[in-house]
Design a protein that fits this description.
Length: 49
């Protein structure tokens, strides 16, 4: 019984840059504050497919 993990990118919600590749469980929803170097500040990032 292995948890199925997928690779997604955390995407800046302000400029849509894909900044942080991560692995997560498929059903997991991720939202976190991360530094976006395109925006030059911390912004909310979401997982994208
Ligand atoms: Zn950004």
């Amino acid at each position: 019984m292995k948890a199925q993990r997928i690779t997604v990118s955390l995407t800046c919600t302000e400029c849509q840059s894909r900044n942080y590749p991560i692995t997560k469980r498929r059903e997991q929803k991720l939202e976190m504050k991360k530094f976006c170097k395109t925006c030059g500040k911390h912004t909310l990032h979401r997982d994208a497919k």
